[in-house]
Amino acid sequence: PIQLQHPTDQNFTVLFLQDTKDVLYLGGTDFVLKIDVDSNYVMEVGIINYSLYGPCRNVITVIEEFQDSLFVCGTNGYKPQCWKLVGNRSSEIVESYDGTGISPYVYTQNRLSLTVEGDLYAAAPLEYDGSSLQFRRKAGSRTNVWMYDNWVSEPTFVAASWVRRKEDRENEKIYIFFREKNSDSSPEADPWVTRVARVCKVDEGGSKRFFQNTWTSFLKARLVCGYPKESLYFNHLLDVYVLHADNWRDSRVYALFTSSWNSTAVCVYSMADIDDVFEKSNFKGYEGDIPDPRPGTCVKNSRGLPYATLNVVKDHSEMSEWLHSSIHPLAPFYVSSYNYTKLAVDRVRAADQHTYNVLLLATGRSPQCVFFFFCFFNSCFI
């Protein structure tokens, strides 16, 4: 094991594992460390420390591999900034960019980032007060696109995943998992609901006359985890892990939820079921004929989509049908009284030569952690 000591406590760190090179990057306040997993060699990379103190320190919030370089972003004293780092043993800054919309102004604000084939997708506040938060394609070879303001309400983005389709590249999509304020204000309704949304990777936005630089394929659906017969749900999404399969339809989404009664639950969803809802469900609040092409369809030229299709996306982006867990649809896959906050999944071959999905659940308390191990239905928990 590697033991690292830093002269000051770190309230926030971000990790990035470069799988192909067995290198782990660790970002904290005013520094980024590069750790060679094989040799345990540790070095500080880049010129991230600007000798800022107090609330103006530069907290690193994003580390991604982008355009064959390491892409690092931080709060930079309330002026979000990004840096492009190159080099092996002595990485250095070669370019810097405005980080607005990629890194938050304050490290406690919501943020999300994802790189897909040379394009950077991100969600971070556009304003200092944490407002104007939305999921965008922010940089890369494709057109920068963003969300229509009315699609989400006070969102907290949790995860994003690119689901590859080896035999159908033009239909590949980015899936976004988040929670948002419930539009149903009735006393019995939960104040927050969990969503899964998707956009097409090839989406270039609409024409100059309508929906220019706006997602033309954005759709969202409610993600449900709980006991439907009792109308009892875990509505506060905490973490998501997508376990990809060779056939994209067999991929599984593991989602960690918490509830108002202080319990956590894991629900498992099939990517095939998720996609079927987007392809077959009615559009909530829409009563007309469904136009052709169907709203949300991936097309080579999104700028040529007809108004009828775009108007449904604009005003009725939510699906009527809810998404229930594929495994144990009448109850969560796992429920615990522990306050778990993070979830990861690994696929391993055991001594009995069977392959299991190992779920790793972590609490947010340190140094106390709860570990346990058991298996059922070809899945194991730690």
What does this structure look like?
The protein has 382 residues and is mainly beta. The protein has two domains: 1-138, no CATH class; 143-341, 7 Propeller (Methylamine Dehydrogenase, Chain H), CATH 2.130.10.10. The strands form seven sheets. Strands 1-2-3-4 form a four-stranded antiparallel beta sheet, with no helix packed on it. The longest helix has 10 residues, at 271-280. The two termini are 19 Å apart. A hairpin with a 5-residue loop joins strand 19 and strand 20 (264-270). The protein is built from two helices and 25 strands.
Helical residue percent? under 10%
Number of domains: 2
Going across the biggest sheet, name each strand in turn.
Answer: 1-2-3-4
Mind telling me the CATH class of the largest domain?
Answer: Mainly Beta
Instruction: Report how far apart the termini are.
Output: 19 Å
Order of helices and strands: EEEEEEEEEEEEEEEEEEEEHHEEEEE
Low-confidence stretches: 367-376
- Please state the structural category: mainly beta
Q: Give the averaged pLDDT, no decimals.
A: 88
- CATH superfamily grouping of the largest domain: YVTN repeat-like/Quinoprotein amine dehydrogenase
- SS elements, strand count: 25
The biggest beta sheet reads: 4 strands, antiparallel
Per the principal axes of the C-alpha atoms, what is the gross shape? globular
Domain Sema: 1-382
GO molecular function: chemorepellent activity; integrin binding; semaphorin receptor binding
Keywords: Glycoprotein
Pfam families: Sema
